[in-house]
Design brief:
- The complex is a heterotrimer of chains A (305), B (325) and C (315).
- Chain A has 305 residues and is mainly alpha-helical.
- Helices cover 70% and strands 0% of the residues of chain A.
- In chain B, the strands form two sheets. Chain B has an eight-stranded mixed beta sheet with strand order 6-7-8-3-9-10-12-11, sandwiched between helices. A four-stranded antiparallel beta sheet of chain B has the order 2-1-4-5, with helices on one face.
- The radius of gyration of chain B is 21 Å and the shape is globular.
- Chain C is 78% helix and 0% strand.
- Chain C is flat and about 85 Å long.
- Classes of the chains: A mainly alpha (305), B alpha/beta (325), C mainly alpha (315).
- At the A-C interface, helix 5, helix 6, helix 9, helix 10 and helix 11 of A face helix 1, helix 5, helix 6, helix 7 and helix 9 of C.
Chain lengths: 305, 325, 315
């Protein structure tokens, strides 16, 4: 029984595969498409955009000044005739304009404090990741220790120590929030450092600076964007907590947290003073969280929470 | 004249597809096969040939986006039409399945005894100590040393080969009529492969369990199986006894497969054979014979799907030709 | 047996590793407090200098800062937190003994609620992935994460206390009804986070090969989830408990203020504002120790659930 010995010619690979023109998609395009499919994220982005526009341009369009006390209409419910669409507070200030201006502060704190934590977190994480070894272990141990501590205590102490200057609030909150960012950046840096394509680039003579510019930064950019988007609501939340217990921004500046705090005082008699800023705050946080989630899914589907 | 036995499992016109973002993946097309009690059938094919998914659908283990049409008649009842709770009366008890990678297929968070005794306790109503005795005996049968001690250990404390034995033991605990083994030796090295094959053979002879062995490795098949089903691009292309397939393969794909098996007795100067080209995409299957593009014997008629030819020796192949290699 | 010594060594190492946390906590808090402008006696009427000097000597405030620091550390070891600067007739130990049970009760109840309810919701969601039930539960969870407790609290107070009159709007009298609202409000964000975490983790686990094996064995789905999927799915939740506790402690400050609860959080804020050094430090040390002990327990639970950790000597 002889076994078959069919000699089959081994054709050139392309001919056997057949011709097909496959257009490549960069990972950014892929991510963008995935993001667009996430309806919650897209809707949130639109709402967020709307709120930002309102907050920035709104106060100029509303006919009331935020510190104008309308003695004819104190604690007035929302009505169209009085011109106070969202009502007034106990001393007659228009809720709508106060909420919009408060929004400016809240969002400002959100952005600036996030930038602070971004700078601290990225540098810390990148250093830990690039050095590796003992340095990395010590640095991460410090992060672990700080992570286990209740932030509120320290922020309160900081506020008590340094007073309530708005700059301080930026720094204090930013200084508390950099931990997650540092962890993520360090993780990325570590895996990038050992990635084969980096070695290959170095081996083929690409300069270090170019490697950083073309390979490392784009890869870090993805995770950083996700965590920035997720840090902003945490920061806004923290600022609102501070304002609520009376350690946030000082009068005449106001933020959503402070407005909610004020509103809670008059909750029974004038619920709109509580509800309006609460709704703005809640929607903003909600939207940022959805956008951040969407970005995270889009950029790394495996990371889904 | 032999009376026709009712087959233990009869798969008729099975179609399995998956709904993905890029389109529908047709993993299995119009598959027909059967196996009698006590027989062993090997289902052979390369990755993507549909061999695993066909049996997954029979066991009701398809992924969320998968769907199966057709019939899978086991002891007179159609498994594909059953609800999960009905299916659970048969799974683990009358039909058992063991999987390719024992490290991930065993629960790493539970001790072996817990994982094993739950099968007998659930299906046969034994109490804990009876179940445990039974499990220990089964471990002994698969040649795990010191089974009373080792049964209290975790999967990661066993070697790869031993883990696979544990899986075999676990599958056979309820003495199923049919054992489906999905590439049980692929993840293991060659010596262990031989051991596991021996083991399954011995157990089969002892309890007359029918075995369906899914594999891509023709070498493993020879010692263990009576019949072979060759699959390609989701379809059955040839089916016959071991002798018929090995010595008288009729379908060009089977012939190519056999020619590709490297042999120690051939001189080193001989070229390695490979079948040129790649299997077709399961999302856009070509019309006619699926093997046409790679077949050295293809001709004009192959644009129409060839019917299965069948001869008296129960040797079937899906080709217009009737030529041995 | 190998197993026991492995776990014991592992636990001990974790415990020792947490001591730096406590140390840092105490040190940072100590120096921060002292860095604040103004002293504890500033708000009093102006005192003649000799009496002020006497007061300072009595409280050791005239000593160099470092010396005060080491003196304090010594006291801490003997659990003597000194007298309160603000509440002259009370020692810190006495004040804390009053406030501690309150905070602990609320905190413990909230943690238990968050854990059990959160995991329940998460598992339910995961089992019905991408159905209406899933979307609504997760939407609700997102809400819980986004809305601050001081927004939820007034709303709940308005609805349940003011309009419906079922529960008191605040105050603490050890009755169940006075506990309901504070516990729910404190637990809300953590419950939401745990729900999302559990859901994601369970979905991942259900894709594992060993779950496929469990199903192939003919086990009903409820058994598959309970015996095979739940344990690995809970691992990330257990890991999260450490930060969750810290978060709840933070949250308690606000909750205690809203509901007028005489707990440690309230005393802390008051103490910080009054520059009552000893009181603030006492609370800080207490919470620090609590965090360490709880983190240690969490680590033990984690190691118990995940046998792979027990044998792994690499830390």
């Amino acid at each position: 029984m002889t076994k078959t010995t069919e000699s089959v010619a081994i054709d050139p690979f392309e001919a056997a595969l057949g011709v097909s023109d496959v257009k490549g998609r960069s990972p950014w395009e892929d991510a963008w498409h995935r993001l667009l499919k996430n309806r919650a994220a897209v809707v949130s982005a639109f709402i967020m955009g709307f709120i930002i526009l309102l907050v920035v341009f709104g106060p100029m369009l509303v006919s009331w000044e935020s510190d104008f006390t309308d003695w004819d209409h104190t604690s007035a419910p929302p009505s169209l005739q009085s011109g106070h669409w969202f009502g007034t507070d106990a001393v007659g200030r228009d809720i709508l304009v106060r909420t919009l201006e408060g929004g400016r502060i809240s969002l400002l704190v959100g952005v600036v404090a996030t930038i602070v934590s971004l700078l601290i977190g990225v540098s810390y994480g990148a250093i830990a990741g690039s050095f590796g070894g003992v340095t990395d272990r010590i640095m991460m141990r410090v992060v672990d220790i700080i992570y286990a501590l209740p932030f509120m205590f320290f922020v309160i102490l900081l506020m008590v120590v340094f007073g309530r200057h708005i700059l301080l609030i930026f720094i204090a909150i930013g200084a508390i929030n950099w931990l997650d960012m540092a962890r993520i950046v360090r993780g990325q840096t570590l895996s990038l450092k050992n990635a084969e394509f980096i070695e290959a680039a170095r081996a083929s003579g690409v300069r270090d600076w170019d490697i950083i510019r073309r390979h490392i930064i784009p890869n870090l950019l993805g995770v950083v964007i996700v965590y920035v988007t997720l840090t902003i609501p945490q920061v806004i939340l923290m600022e609102s907590f501070l304002s609520f217990i009376g350690l946030g921004v000082q009068e005449p500046m106001s933020s959503w947290g402070a407005l909610v705090s004020d509103g809670a005082q008059d909750m029974e008699s004038a619920p709109w003073t509580l509800i309006v800023p609460s709704v703005f705050l809640a929607i903003t946080l909600y939207c940022f969280n959805f956008i951040g989630d969407g970005l995270r899914d889009a950029l790394d589907p495996k990371d889904r929470l | 004249m032999k009376e026709a036995l009712m087959p233990l499992l009869e798969v008729k016109d099975l179609n399995v597809g998956f709904n993905t973002a890029e389109g529908e993946v047709h993993a299995v097309n119009n598959l027909n096969f059967s196996i009698n009690a006590g027989d062993t059938l090997a289902i052979v094919g390369e990755s993507g040939s549909g061999k695993t998914q066909s049996l997954m659908s029979v066991m009701g283990l398809l992924a969320e986006n998968g769907h199966a049409e057709g019939q899978a008649i086991f002891k007179g009842k159609d498994l594909l039409k059953m609800s999960t709770s009905e299916l659970n009366k048969h799974r683990g008890r009358e039909i058992a399945m063991i999987f390719q990678d024992p490290m991930t297929s065993l629960n790493p968070y539970l001790r072996i005894d817990k994982q094993m005794i739950e099968v007998v306790m659930h299906h046969q109503g034994l109490n804990k100590s009876e179940a445990r005795e039974h499990a220990v005996e089964m471990l002994r049968a698969v040649r795990i040393p010191d089974p009373e001690e080792r049964i209290r250990q975790y999967p990661h404390e066993f070697s790869g080969g031993m883990r696979q034995r544990v899986m075999v033991a676990m599958g056979l605990l309820c003495e199923p009529d049919l054992l489906i083994a999905d590439e049980p030796t692929t993840a293991l090295d060659v010596t262990v492969q031989a051991q596991i094959s021996h083991l399954m053979n011995a157990l089969r002879r002892k309890s007359n369990t029918a075995i369906i062995l899914i594999t891509h490795d023709l070498g493993v098949v020879a010692g263990l199986c009576d019949r072979i089903l060759v699959m390609y691009a989701g379809e059955a292309v040839e089916c016959g006894s071991v002798e018929q397939i090995y010595y008288d393969a009729k379908h060009p794909y089977t012939q190519g497969l056999l020619a590709s098996v490297p042999r120690l007795d051939h001189m080193a100067s001989k070229e390695m054979h490979a079948i040129p080209g790649n299997p077709p995409s399961l999302m856009s299957l070509p019309k006619g014979c699926k093997f046409r593009d790679r077949c050295p014997k293809a001709h004009a008629a192959c644009e129409e799907t060839p019917p299965m030819q069948l001869d008296e020796g129960r040797h079937a192949w899906r080709c217009y030709l009737d030529e041995s290699a | 047996m190998i197993q026991n010594s492995g776990m014991a060594k592992h636990s001990l190492r974790r415990l020792l590793g947490l001591l730096p946390t406590l140390f840092m906590l105490i040190t940072v808090a100590f120096f921060l407090m002292r860095a604040a402008p103004g002293g504890p006696f500033d708000s009093e009427r102006v005192l003649p200098p000799e009496i002020e000097a006497n007061l300072e000597a009595r409280y050791h405030l005239d000593e160099p800062l470092l010396q005060q620091y080491f003196r304090y550390l010594g006291q801490v070891v003997t659990l003597d937190f000194g007298p309160s600067f603000q509440y002259k007739d009370w020692t810190v130990n006495e004040l804390m003994a009053q406030a501690m049970p309150v905070s602990l009760t609320v905190g413990l109840a909230a943690m238990l609620l968050a854990f059990f309810l959160g995991t329940l919701i998460g598992v339910a969601s995961a089992m019905r992935q991408n159905t209406g039930v899933d979307y609504s539960l997760m939407g609700l969870a997102m809400l819980g994460i986004s809305i601050p407790s001081f927004v939820i609290a007034p709303i709940l107070i308005l609805l349940l206390a003011v309009y419906a009159g079922w529960l008191p709007a605040g105050g603490w009298d050890w009755s169940v009804s006075s506990m309901v609202l504070p516990v729910i409000t404190l637990a809300f964000p953590v419950t939401a986070y745990i729900a999302r975490l559990t859901r994601g983790s369970m979905i991942e686990v259900l894709k594992s090969n060993f779950i496929r094996t469990a199903r192939a064995k003919g086990l009903p789905e409820s058994m598959v989830i309970r015996r095979h999927a739940l344990r690995p799915a809970l691992l990330p939740v257990i890991s999260y408990l450490g930060p969750a506790i810290a978060g709840m402690i933070s949250g308690s400050v606000v909750i205690e203020r809203i509901f007028s609860i005489p707990g440690l959080g309230s005393y802390f804020v008051q103490g910080a504002l009054n520059r009552d050094y000893t009181l603030v430090m006492g609370i800080v040390v207490f919470y620090g120790v609590l965090i360490i002990v709880l983190n240690f327990l969490v680590d033990l639970i984690y190691a118990w659930l995940n046998p792979k950790i027990r044998y792994d000597e690499n830390d």
